[in-house]
């Protein structure tokens, strides 16, 4: 499969999201949390240290795993079956979760001063911010695809309903 999202087929888009984004987030978050903890420990007391970042990332590991499982076990199979009455309820829950994820991203940006490295940052700190940028970019595109493409196709009354 190419990296282009199959935006006109809701069932295919659910599979794309699982393989492209869910799998990737599961790979990204644990090392990010570990790297953040290392930076916080090694640079404790530095004015620029993103104190609390590892806690945010560890919390996101749990929250996102629950969110992705709800999609994989409940919502996406329902979408693949053609949706139906009541599908707007799990979609509303997923949209609310996305709002929570966006708030966590805002907290990451605040703690890292918009991913701005201090002068002379070590290799781990530099790699952390580069990988955080990749994660945030992936997560924001993941949420955009679901909120703006997949969910509208699957909601009752939408003429683009899959």
TrEMBL record:
Record localization: Cytoplasm
Protein name: Hemerythrin domain-containing protein
Top-rank lineage group of the source organism: Bacteria
Domain Hemerythrin-like per the UniProt entry, residue ranges: 19-153
PANTHER family: IRON-SULFUR CLUSTER REPAIR PROTEIN YTFE
Major location (coarse): cytoplasm
Keywords of the record: Cytoplasm, Iron, Metal-binding
Stored Pfam families: Hemerythrin
Matches recorded under InterPro entries: Hemerythrin-like, RIC_family
Source organism (scientific name): Paracoccus spongiarum
Keyword flag Iron: yes
């Amino acid at each position: 499969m190419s990296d282009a999202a199959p935006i006109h087929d809701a069932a295919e888009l659910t599979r794309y999201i699982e393989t492209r984004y869910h799998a990737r987030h599961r790979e990204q978050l644990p090392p990010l949390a570990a790297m953040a903890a290392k930076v916080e420990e090694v640079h404790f007391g530095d004015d620029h240290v993103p104190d609390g970042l590892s806690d945010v990332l560890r919390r996101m590991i749990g929250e996102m795993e629950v969110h992705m499982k709800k999609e994989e076990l409940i919502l996406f199979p329902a979408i693949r079956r053609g949706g139906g009455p009541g599908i707007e309820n799990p979609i509303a829950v997923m949209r609310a979760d996305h709002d929570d994820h966006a708030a966590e991203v805002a907290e990451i940006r605040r703690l890292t001063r918009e991913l701005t490295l201090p002068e002379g940052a070590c290799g781990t700190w530099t790699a952390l911010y580069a990988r955080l940028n990749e994660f945030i970019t992936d997560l924001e595109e993941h949420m955009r695809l679901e909120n703006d493409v997949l969910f509208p196709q699957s909601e009752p009354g939408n003429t683009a309903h899959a």
